[in-house]
Amino acid sequence: MTFLRRQLPLVITFVAGVIFTLQYYVPHPKSEILLTEGSLWIQIIGLFALVLGVTSLFHIHAVKIKRQEPGWGYSLILYFGIVVTLAVGLFVQWVGGQHPGGKETIDGAMTAFGWIYTYTMVPLQGTMFAILAFFIASAAYRSFRARSKEAALLLTAAVIVMMGRVPLGEYLLPVTGDITLWILNVLNASVRRAILIGISLGAVALSIKIIFGLERAYLGGGKE
Amino acid sequence: MPFDVVLGAWVAVGLTLFIFTFLYEDNPLFKLAEHLYVGISVGYTIVKGYELVFRLIYDPIVDEGEWSRLIPVGIGILMLTRYVPKIAWLSRIAFAFVVGVGSGLAIPRLISSYILKQVEDTVRPLVSVLEGGLIRPTFDILNPESSLNSLVILIGVMSVLFYFFFSIEHRGPVKVAARTGIFFLMLSFGAAFGYTVMARMSLLIGRFRDLIEFARPEYGRATLWLLAVTIVILVTAAFRRPSAPPEQE
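^ Those are the sequences you sent over. The predicted structure of the assembly is below.
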């Protein structure tokens, strides 16, 4: 039984890891099929991970409502959002002979699900990200004081890029457009490249440790 | 104007204004919109997941007889055993498979695309072949492939890598390289910050454009009415809030 609980997952990780590593170096149509099928399998398993996540969210808010904890009314609103979207996306579309989850009918008209997406999700998502502009600006005001050479560089680069990205900035100081391009395409590219190389080396090392069973944190703790 | 569009405008304006109230303070209107956002997003994800079930599982099995698709379904079901404590260990098999495949896929692709390719693009010739077969360095600052910029990129990559390399003490020439790396990092972080701010500003302008559009008479002046309602609710809530107890000496 210990083998099934502790060793079998490690064997599965090893076999799957080695097969999909070698797949890259086998230039054969069957190898490509293996890659395509493997990716589809991961997507299918991911759907069950979604079930885990959604049930966990349902559970947390159900407990909140049951105990009538502070703010439990908002949990009801959350449930309302889920139920209405599901009902419209699956049931109403199905009854109306439309494809479930489709945002437009064949003749290009907006479906009820498309309405929810356009008039609730898009504005909510857009505004949530848009208000970050204010918080970023206020954080910058507090922390962007040029106390050192490094901070001065950070401030200068930020100001130049901000000016170079809008017509007004380029109108006031035409050179900012070219400097912005140089900063983004040369300086920023070199730093991103170095960070990418570092991250990739670390990820490859971690993947090798996982395949050989040296890293087992993903299996979790708990009972043997 | 069709009724569904006008209704949509009112809903979109209301939710947008409710989210913006967070700039004043955390309040019930913001929380309402926030929870509705989470709920709708989860519902949307489930509907899209349902679509995937048909596309990846049901249709291939029923229409094309691809019974092999039942194997990942079986592995996925093992994931759900986490809800049954006695057999929760079975979920490890599913996690082991996903992590194993992910690691296997990652190794060659990371080495090829993110290490070798990046190194290849960093170490470029410092001279260019010009028209007429003339070979000489180029100093065009706006061309990322000019000799000057190739050198800057090489120095940037090497110095940043030195900064993150802790196996040797940062003294002497290594310290100089690491310090140069810090300067490159700061310039890059500043540029990333400026770029992000402008991207958020662009989203903000988009939201304001919608608010201005929906303030027109054909939409029933949704923005103006809902702005007034929002302000009234916030003011009422502020007056009804119990005052904080005086601080004890």
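The two ends of chain B are 63 Å apart (CA to CA). Chain B is about 70% helix and 0% strand.

Shout if you want it in another format.
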